[in-house]
Write a structure and sequence with these properties.
The chain is an alpha+beta fold. The chain has 2 domains: 74 residues, Beta-grasp domain (Ubiquitin-like (UB roll)); 67 residues, DNA polymerase, domain 1. 34% of the residues lie in helices and 14% in strands. The chain contains 5 helices and 5 strands, in the order E-E-H-E-E-E-H-H-H-H. It has a 5-stranded mixed beta sheet, with helices on both faces. Strand 3 and strand 4 form a beta hairpin. Helix 2 packs across helix 5.
Length: 152
């Protein structure tokens, strides 16, 4: 029996099993490459998606648990022609070296800014702490979030 889900504002159906990780459906069935397969255990945050605005690890989120809730991926924030303010800020600050963590960092930052429009630097660092950047560009990531706040 197909499972219906809403991703980036569009309705999709999949025949994947209910216990399939959402990450696999997003990447393999829907062709969305924003969410990355990093560790597969929910530790790194590369696979982060927003479910009703809450950042969750798609590698650990079973498809059947979505219950019709809206999912947003990195592709759902902006377009190449009109990127979201966080995407623009990450580019301007060169906040990604390899870019593997950018998906999780940007989506987590969006959730933070939606909840707290003008967080302090300490709040930004604390909120992004569970997201791993192997390249060590954390200072640029924080600067990008601060730029997004300034440029609104």
């Amino acid at each position: 029996m197909p499972i219906a889900l809403t991703v980036n504002g569009g309705r999709h159906e999949t025949t994947a099993e209910a216990d399939t990780p959402l990450l696999y459906v997003l990447r393999n069935d829907l062709g969305l490459n924003g969410p990355r397969f990093g560790c597969g255990t929910g530790q790194c945050g590369a696979c982060t998606v927003l479910v009703e605005g809450v950042p969750l690890r798609a590698c650990q989120l079973e498809l059947g648990t979505l219950g019709g809730r809206a999912v947003t991926t990195l592709e759902g924030l902006g377009t190449p022609a009109q990127p979201h303010k966080l995407q623009r800020a990450f580019i301007a600050e060169q906040a990604a070296q390899c870019g593997y963590c950018a998906n999780g960092m940007i989506l987590a930052a969006k959730a933070l800014l939606d909840a707290t429009p003008e967080p302090s630097e300490a709040e930004i660092r604390q909120y992004l702490d569970p997201y791993l950047c192997r390249c060590g560009t954390h200072h640029r990531i924080v600067a990008a979030v601060q730029r997004a706040i300034r440029e609104g």
